[in-house]
Amino acid sequence: MTDLTAAIPTIAQLRENSLSGVVRHEIERLILSGELPTGSRVNENAISLRLGVSRGPVREACRALVELGLLRLIPNRGVFVRRMDRHDVEEVYDLRAGLTGLAGSLLASKITDAEIERLRALVADMDEAADAGDFRQFYPVNLEFHDVILQLTGNSRLIKNYQALVKEFQLFRTHGLVQSDALKESNAEHRAILAALDSRDPAIAYQASFRHVQHGKQRMFAAFDKLTQAGPLPAEPAEPRPIE
Amino acid sequence: MTDLTAAIPTIAQLRENSLSGVVRHEIERLILSGELPTGSRVNENAISLRLGVSRGPVREACRALVELGLLRLIPNRGVFVRRMDRHDVEEVYDLRAGLTGLAGSLLASKITDAEIERLRALVADMDEAADAGDFRQFYPVNLEFHDVILQLTGNSRLIKNYQALVKEFQLFRTHGLVQSDALKESNAEHRAILAALDSRDPAIAYQASFRHVQHGKQRMFAAFDKLTQAGPLPAEPAEPRPIE
DNA sequence: ATTTAGTAAACTGTTGACAATCTTCTGTAG
DNA sequence: CTACAGAAGATTGTCAACAGTTTACTAAAT
User: Are B68 and B164 in contact (CB under 8 A)?
Assistant: First the structure.
């Protein structure tokens, strides 16, 4: 669904976005892929050398990513890949829950039978994957399920905000620590969302969608805290000292 | 609440944000004040000359504002002050309703008695203004009421997203066409939000907050359509042709 | 040995100039 | 009189160099 622009500027993007845009996508890729690790400084010179362009476009791209929330700007020191602490993750989850709920709410009042069936098929696919305990199969369908709902709302601003949030969430790379019964739990909630949409009641659709993400948050934190027995995430994990 | 930076770079901002930030705020001011009219092109040269800086910082500022949604970028043509059609306004209202609802929902589970009282005082102030039919007195308190709720959630991303949305909404300058009975209606809804928060029930607080904005949307469109008898807003009002 | 002052390198912030693109104006042909 | 082609002007996109700040290193003093 989300377009993953390859490392090499893919023809069209170069004509469309004219360097600055290409650079932006490339830096985004470097961040989300983890090549630029969390908390590290993004060296303008290094990037411009690596991509064979001047520093101007690199700076523009960085400013855009700062606005998007993936980078953090400290004047005269540079931009740093944003570090997410527990509070940040909680914020992202809460906001994502709200937007997901809104999407469900908006869609409930105008979804068609054909669209319902399309979603039902996705839920069935996820059921299959959940029964097999196959996270690798489950995950992309899960993504598609939520993306379809989002797109069907037709609210471009909602879509943009949500996708930005997903990217920010990826900074906190903690996938794969989901238990196999969590898959079944998660898909049961998908079924609830589907039923709510089918009922055409915005309030119910909101509730079902909102709760799904909030439960996801709880599942994630539970799994995470179990993994790091020593203690939960530090509240302030050594930001590159913003102020002396 | 929101810091209105004056036209002249106000000392601190200059040290803090180093030109690019100052320029960004100044362009933002030009847009929101209407000096740069909706749909018009933002000439990099003109801005840089006017502010006495080079084009670099101006470009950076513009890219940031594009990301924020106030400007629209067309490659090799420049950036244009975003034009809002009816669909855009509807999108903004819907998203704003969702975020407002989320704020209410999040706050309901943790609001203190003192905070409730603070909000109650604001509602009382608005009652007074509504009785007098004084929109000029009503408006800033209304703004504060919603801003307080937003801030008390403590979710910085929610706050940022909401405030960006408010700025975008200001592009569609249609204040003052509110009838005096709409004030009373609006404040009745404020009272409902307050009661919902007081009940500490997130679901009810969501509903009350969400509905308030949706009713605001209806009030606005009703007033607007009455004003422009000829017909509602055009669906695509002569964008500077994005594609030939 | 540790701390502190001083110096050099690295990096960001900013600028002015050059190249590519688009827009407008003018003149000519139909 | 209208439509089209071409040139001139304006504007964006990009670059390389300069200035100011921060960081890292070195050496002397306690």
Answer: yes
3-state secondary structure A110-126: CCCHHHHHHHHHHHHHH
- Six token digits for residue B129: 């203004």
Which of A16, A60, A210 is nearest residue B59 as measured by Cβ atoms?
Answer: A60
pTM over 0.85: yes
Q: How far apart are CA B92 and CA A10, in angstroms?
A: 33
**Residue A69 near residue A164 (C-beta atoms within 8 A):** yes
In DSSP terms, A42 is beta-bridged to A79
Residues 97-116 of A with CB under 7 A from strand C: none
Q: Which residue has the higher pLDDT, A165 or A4?
A: A165
Nearest Cβ partner for A95 among B18, B63, B157: B157
**How is residue A102 written in tokens?**
């809104």
Which residues make beta-bridge pairs with B72?
B80
- Is A81 near strand C, with its CB below 7 A from some atom of it? no
Cα angle, residue B189 at apex, residues A154 and B156 outer, rounded to 5°: 60
Positions of chain B with pLDDT under 50? 1-15, 233-244
Write out chain A residues lying below 8 Å of B56, CB-based.
Answer: 56, 59
Q: How far apart are CA B48 and CA B26, in angstroms?
A: 11
CB-based contacts of A4, cutoff 8 Å, min separation 6: A29
pLDDT, one tens digit per residue, over A167-200 is 999 998 776 666 777 899 999 999 999 999 999 9
Note the CA–C1' distance, B1 to C11, in angstroms: 36
Tokens of B120: 């109650």
Containing H/E element for A80? strand A78-81
Listed in order, strand segments (DSSP E) in B85-232 are none
Residue-wise pLDDT for B12-25, tens only, equals 444 456 788 899 99
Cβ-based contacts of B63 with chain A (< 8 Å): 20, 60, 63-64
Contact between B109 and B200 (Cβ < 8 Å): yes
